[in-house]
């Protein structure tokens, strides 16, 4: 019996790709670099925003200086536009309610910077009593480092064997592996099934309600 479910945010609970693409394209435009199609961003997102900008910048232009310029414009735009087109994936609000009714503890572990993680969770899941909502925090290694999971376990006091980690990318599957907890890969997010399979997660699910049978 799993007592705690840890969810990744982007690509798992929320489809945020259009807003991330829109704000990054704005920042690229402002700094004079070429933009990308929304779909390309599925492979840029996942390791925090600096990595997103590094991937979005052209070859030969991926300097710290350029990343920091793009970041500045992105943050201004994303602070105003992070909820323009984002929305929970089908069945997610119902899944979270059902887990809560069953008495399962829930938490969020994201590589998105902390303030945006908190604001998005508050906006889209205001009624959900998450025990912890952790994003990318200053001085703390990002996923796939297991620190974020360890921090959630410290807050919730749940043993590792009682935890299910749910995510949409190889980074998430590796985070669960590194933390020594059971993973469920979801196929509705940003990354393809083949990427999830490479990390041999214990479970792969195609629809949100399937998570209930893994508890
Ligand atoms: O912002 C990112 O890079 C990805 O965030 P996630 O960990 O919630 O998928």
UniProtKB/TrEMBL annotation:
Domain of life: Bacteria
Reactions the enzyme catalyzes: 2-phosphoglycolate + H2O = glycolate + phosphate
GO BP terms in the entry: DNA repair
One term of GO molecular function: phosphoglycolate phosphatase activity
GO cellular component terms, A-Z: cytosol
Enzyme class of the recorded protein, top EC level: hydrolase
EC number: 3.1.3.18
InterPro entries: HAD-like_hydrolase_sf, HAD-like_sf, HAD-SF_hydro_IA, HAD_2, HAD_sf, PGP-like_dom2
Pathway info: Organic acid metabolism; glycolate biosynthesis; glycolate from 2-phosphoglycolate: step 1/1
Record-stated family: Belongs to the HAD-like hydrolase superfamily. CbbY/CbbZ/Gph/YieH family.
Name of this protein: phosphoglycolate phosphatase
UniProt source species: Bacteroides luti
Organism classification: Bacteria, Pseudomonadati, Bacteroidota, Bacteroidia, Bacteroidales
């Amino acid at each position: 019996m799993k007592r705690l479910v840890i969810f990744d945010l982007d690509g798992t609970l929320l489809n945020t790709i259009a807003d991330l693409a829109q704000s990054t394209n704005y920042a690229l435009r402002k700094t004079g670099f070429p933009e990308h199609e929304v779909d390309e961003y599925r492979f840029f997102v996942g390791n925090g925003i600096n990595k997103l900008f590094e991937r979005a910048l052209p070859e030969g232009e991926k300097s710290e200086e350029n990343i920091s310029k793009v970041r500045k414009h992105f943050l201004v735009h994303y602070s105003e536009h992070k909820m323009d087109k984002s929305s929970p994936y089908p069945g997610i609000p119902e899944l979270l309610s059902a887990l809560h009714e069953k008495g399962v503890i829930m938490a969020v572990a994201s590589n998105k910077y902390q303030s945006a993680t908190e604001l998005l969770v508050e906006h889209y899941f205001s009624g959900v009593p998450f025990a912890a909502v952790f994003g990318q925090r200053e001085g703390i290694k990002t996923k796939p480092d297991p620190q974020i999971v360890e921090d959630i376990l410290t807050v919730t006091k749940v043993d590792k064997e009682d935890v299910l980690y749910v995510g949409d990318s190889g980074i998430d599957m590796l985070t669960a592996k590194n933390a020594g907890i059971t993973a469920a890969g979801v196929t509705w997010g940003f990354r393809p099934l083949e990427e999830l399979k490479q990390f041999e997660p214990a479970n792969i699910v195609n629809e949100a309600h399937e998570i209930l049978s893994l508890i």
